[in-house]
């Protein structure tokens, strides 16, 4: 027993004595690894007597190896790393990221953090345990179309970059990770910022930012196979290979992936494929990397959700998995009711160390996307919807018919990003910017009609073009003055956006919008000691409307306005050897915020409208504690209030025969912002009963969320509709709170010829909780009675994902 209590521990520093937190220490026999903590310390415990080979690596430094012999006592082995003579990609990511002492709220996720849960679910699900985050899935399983909200703000308000290059769609401003399936298998690290954060490229951040860095230099050759099978016929296969450093200068890496799932919701299947290729040259002062990655997705549409009269326990059908899209007749659905889209990304990244204090980073990029929605439409109006003049066949006038159509998007996005960093010592100065252009064609074809409509094949019934130019430049400085870090940041952004031509509702669109935004930021961090600091920041963000705000605005809405946000952040961070924690208070004051109305357009996108004054205020707490060498606990919680001041809106109003009546007005002095829970909590308890094996119990709680901005208050003098088959969903415009738990088991071992074999079992929703993570509502008044037409997105009950990974 005594021989099993030996350990190896130590500290990792550079030549100047600075600790290197995050350095990776590995033992080759048997293979296991440790990561240096904030003090640069590491340890391997419960070792037997014997000889061990240790290797320490850290980005920008040469790897160091030592051989340690354990006899009757534990050993201390400190490591001192020297800077590598070759450059790395650390320059690329610093321009858009917060540093460890920056006065802003952020979370860093390493490749190791992501790999624990990367079993096929979309990238938002790998971020689910970061503070203030809520995720959802159209198909209910996390595969296919997924959504993410940060502090109540949806994905169209979250700025996403990949290697500093904007990823959000230029028009919708959403980040559709389904278009780059299994991207996480090529990611080195992610930083999630909350609030306005630091200046970055692309659209302004109103809820947060997700900054992704793909793979960096790996000096030794490798091959990895990752395979997952799971519930609802879910399959994931990934192959990763790399050459390591060739000729002291070159590396080549590649990945090939496929992900398939039938989905929890009926027919909500996903067929996803992707590849990632990367080649790099490393010199003494320069790095050049070329990335090419492509994603293909074909998903059966499930973007409407499930009607409330179907979903409840006392409802008509009691079928949580019901999908009405593609309906032809009873038990007969259109098999090609799909979203089919391909996206190609090309990146050329260049880093140059000009002097020890001055570095330059630049990138050229091009993204090509093309695809369509295919839909079956019953008894559709030919003239009103498609501009097709009714024809007479055999004496009958064909004014409507069953048909199938495709709505296409064919777009190009390209540009340049750059940054210049000057760091002579106490001053850290970055000047950067970008110029990006977007050119997108939107058009639709009727590909099939059940009855002759007098048109040829692939009849085109609309086409419009959109162009967008986006220019920005920013300067950011951090100055260390004793224990005080002073922070200043300002960005200028110019946006030109034009839409021209008929759109899918046969309306001619001619919109031209120009915006000039100035976004200043300032802050201060006080370093109490090497373990504790407090910070305060103030930031201004401005953001333009998206395409749907122009094309889908309701009849009573004016042309959308740009939004303005003033973000105040106050926080405290502590990092100890076995404990780290942070608390952050925020107040986000909006002018003309585009809030979600609760309604969806005909392709599942949220419809929004400006409100004059609104705010979000809250407190975020997160921490991690190492209770024993085998037991640790990480947790986070957000308590918030999210309000609109002086909201006015109008509900549609008709007679019993659906003849239009004047709208029914509603006025609120203060009401809750839709999809903004007042409490979000996450927890992960990890127990490692054996070396290289662990059990994790992962939980998430999300409080009630309103589906629109009325807080479920009905107009005075209007009768509320009765329950549909005693289904309470029919009278409530909100998502019920939910508490969901997962269990993850993993074990790693090695055999001759295989560096590591990893076994993982993820049991999602282990207690089989029935809940809905997203929804939509369409309230309206008919004959003096309010009817709520609600749709919900049920998430899967208990389901499994099992993975085997091999590393060579």
From TrEMBL:
It is a multi-pass membrane protein. Residues 100-208 form the TonB-dependent receptor plug domain. Gene3D superfamilies: Carboxypeptidase-like, regulatory domain, TonB-dependent receptor, beta-barrel domain, TonB-dependent receptor, plug domain. Keywords: Cell outer membrane, Ion transport, Iron, Iron transport, Membrane, Receptor, Signal, TonB box, Transmembrane, Transmembrane beta strand, Transport. It is found in: Cell outer membrane. Its main location: membrane. This is TonB-dependent receptor.
């Amino acid at each position: 027993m005594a021989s099993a209590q030996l350990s190896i521990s130590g500290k990792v520093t550079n030549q100047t004595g600075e600790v290197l937190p995050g350095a990776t220490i590995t033992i080759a026999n048997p293979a296991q690894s440790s990561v240096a903590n904030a003090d640069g310390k590491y340890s391997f415990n419960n070792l037997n007597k014997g000889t061990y080979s240790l290797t320490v690596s850290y980005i920008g430094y040469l790897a160091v190896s030592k051989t340690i012999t354990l006899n009757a006592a534990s050993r201390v082995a400190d490591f001192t790393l020297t800077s590598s003579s070759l450059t790395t990609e650390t320059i690329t990511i610093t321009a858009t990221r917060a540093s460890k002492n920056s006065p802003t709220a952020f979370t860093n996720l390493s490749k190791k953090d992501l790999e624990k849960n990367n079993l096929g679910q979309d990238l938002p699900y790998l971020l689910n345990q970061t503070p203030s985050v809520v995720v959802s899935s159209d198909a209910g399983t996390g595969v296919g179309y997924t959504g993410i909200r940060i502090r109540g703000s949806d994905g169209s308000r979250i700025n996403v970059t990949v290697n500093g290059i904007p990823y959000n769609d230029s028009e919708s401003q959403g980040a559709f990770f389904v278009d780059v399936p299994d991207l996480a298998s090529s990611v080195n690290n992610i930083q999630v910022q909350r609030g306005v954060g630091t200046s970055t490229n692309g659209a302004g951040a109103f809820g947060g930012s997700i900054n992704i860095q793909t793979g960096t230099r790996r000096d030794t050759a490798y091959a990895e196979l990752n395979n997952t099978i799971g519930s609802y016929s879910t399959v994931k296969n990934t192959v990763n290979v790399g050459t390591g450093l060739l000729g002291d200068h070159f590396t080549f890496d590649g990945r090939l992936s496929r992900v398939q799932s039938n989905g929890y919701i009926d027919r909500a299947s996903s067929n996803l494929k992707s590849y990632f290729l990367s080649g790099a040259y490393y010199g003494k002062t320069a790095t050049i990397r070329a990335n090419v990655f492509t994603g293909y997705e074909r998903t059966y549409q499930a973007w409407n959700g499930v009607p409330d009269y179907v979903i409840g326990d006392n409802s008509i059908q009691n079928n949580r998995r019901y999908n009405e899209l593609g309906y032809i007749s009873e038990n007969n659905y259109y098999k090609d009711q799909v979203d089919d889209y391909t996206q190609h990304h090309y990146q050329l990244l260049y880093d140059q160390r000009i002097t020890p204090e001055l570095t330059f980073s630049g990138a050229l990029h091009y993204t090509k996307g093309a695809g369509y929605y295919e839909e079956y439409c019953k008894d559709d109006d030919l003239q009103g919807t498609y501009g097709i003049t009714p024809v007479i066949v055999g004496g009958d006038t064909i004014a409507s018919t069953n048909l199938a159509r495709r709505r296409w998007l064919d777009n190009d996005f390209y540009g340049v990003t750059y940054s210049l960093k000057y760091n002579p010592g106490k001053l850290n100065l970055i000047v950067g910017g970008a110029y990006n252009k977007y050119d997108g064609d939107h058009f639709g074809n009727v590909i099939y009609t059940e009855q002759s409509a007098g048109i040829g094949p692939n009849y085109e019934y609309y086409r419009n073009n959109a162009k967008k130019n986006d220019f920005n430049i920013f300067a950011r400085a951090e100055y260390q003055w004793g224990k005080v870090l002073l922070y200043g940041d300002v960005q200028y952004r110019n946006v030109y956006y034009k839409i021209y031509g008929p759109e899918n509702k046969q309306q001619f669109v001619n919109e031209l919008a120009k915006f000039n935004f100035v976004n200043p930021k300032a802050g201060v961090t006080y370093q109490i000691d090497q373990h504790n600091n407090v910070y305060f920041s103030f930031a201004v963000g401005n953001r333009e409307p998206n395409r749907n705000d122009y094309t889908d605005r309701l009849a009573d809405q004016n042309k959308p306005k740009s939004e303005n946000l003033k973000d105040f952040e106050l926080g405290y961070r502590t990092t100890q050897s076995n404990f780290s924690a942070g608390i952050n208070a925020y107040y986000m004051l909006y002018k003309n915020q585009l809030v979600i109305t609760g309604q969806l357009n005909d392709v599942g996108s949220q419809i929004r409208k400006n409100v004059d004054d609104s705010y979000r205020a809250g407190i975020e707490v997160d921490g991690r504690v190492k209770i024993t060498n085998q037991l640790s606990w990480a947790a986070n919680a957000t308590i918030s209030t999210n309000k609109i001041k002086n909201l006015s809106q109008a509900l549609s109003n008709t007679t019993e025969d659906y003849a239009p009546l004047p709208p029914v007005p509603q006025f609120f002095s203060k009401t809750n912002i839709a999809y903004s829970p007042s409490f979000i909590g996450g927890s992960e308890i990890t127990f490692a009963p054996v070396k290289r094996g662990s059990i994790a119990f992962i939980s998430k709680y999300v409080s009630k969320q309103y589906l629109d901005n009325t807080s479920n208050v009905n107009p005075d003098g209007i009768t509320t509709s009765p329950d549909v088959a005693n289904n309470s969903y029919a009278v409530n415009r909100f998502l019920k709170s939910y508490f969901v738990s997962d269990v993850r088991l993993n074990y790693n071992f090695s055999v001759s010829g295989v560096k590591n074999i990893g076994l993982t079992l993820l049991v999602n929703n282990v207690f089989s909780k029935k809940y809905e993570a997203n929804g939509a509502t369409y309230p309206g008044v008919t004959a003096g009675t309010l009817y709520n037409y609600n749709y919900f997105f049920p998430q899967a009950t208990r389901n499994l994902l099992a993975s085997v990974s091999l590393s060579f």
